[in-house]
Amino acid sequence: MAREHSVIIIPGLGDRYLSTKLSTVDWKNRLDLNPYIHLAPWKDDEEFHFKLKRLTDLIDYLVSQGSVSLVGISAGWSLVVNAYSQRREDITRLVNVCGRGSAGKNVRPNLTYSAKKSPAFKQSVLAAEKVLPTLSDSDLRKIMTIRGLYDEAVPLSTIPILGAKNIQIPSLGHVPTITIAMTIARGPMVKFLQSE
Questions:
Q1: Is residue 102 pLDDT above 90, yes or no?
Q2: Radius of gyration of the CA atoms of the chain, in A
Q3: pLDDT band at 1, cuts 50/70/90?
Q4: Which of 15, 34, 118, 187 is least buried, going by the fewest C-beta atoms within 10 A?
């Protein structure tokens, strides 16, 4: 029996389960990728370290069945980075779809504004910001970032990572770029995920 390639997808602050599910509905049968949508959820009272623990527990469970990759959508990216820091050997690929990996400098919106309804998101970004500089060249080769031409919610400068595979798609706006990256322009992401 072939081992599975599980892809854990963590949505952003809106915890958009249904739209994420619809964009990955054919992954298992058509692409041989087994999607698991994992909600943080971002706007509850749960502390960041509990959100991270639930994700690493899921990774531990799925890695026994095969390879595991992580896709972070928007706010979900920071949680992906933090989980990777604890499970580097277990993760095959990481994809950032319009996600903030750092607070950034002189950017709008600033992190405090973006995280006003989710203290856990702010903690996650600040923790991820400390992890990213520690990544090795081999770690960076596992990462793809996707951004649009303009993003009103996530400063573009906080998305790409030096040494990773960074792509920009011809799209404007945060939600439209995520939608396009997960659907009609998913080719580069899917190819990257499949290139274990």
A1: yes
A2: 15
A3: very low
A4: 187
Q: What is the pLDDT of residue 142?
A: 98
Q: Which residues contact 87 (CB under 8 A, 6 or more apart)?
A: 56, 59, 60, 63
Which tens digit of pLDDT belongs to each residue from 152-194?
Answer: 999 999 999 999 999 999 999 999 999 999 999 999 999 999 9
Domain count, the chain: 1
Integer CA distances (angstroms), 121 to 66, 69, 125, in order:
29, 21, 6
**pTM summary value:** 0.96
* Separation CA 169–CA 182 (nearest Å): 11
> Residue 24: which CATH number?
3.40.50.1820
Taking the CA atoms of residue 38, residue 43, residue 44 and residue 46 in that order, the dihedral angle to the nearest 10 degrees is 70
Token representation of residue 56: 């690493």
Two tokens, residue 60: 């531990």
CA pair distance 129, 3, nearest whole angstrom? 33
Residue pair 103/153 in contact (Cβ under 8 Å)? The answer is no
What's the mean pLDDT in 125-140? 98
Rounded distance, CA 140 to CA 19, Å? 29
Q: State the residue range of the domain holding 144.
A: 4-194
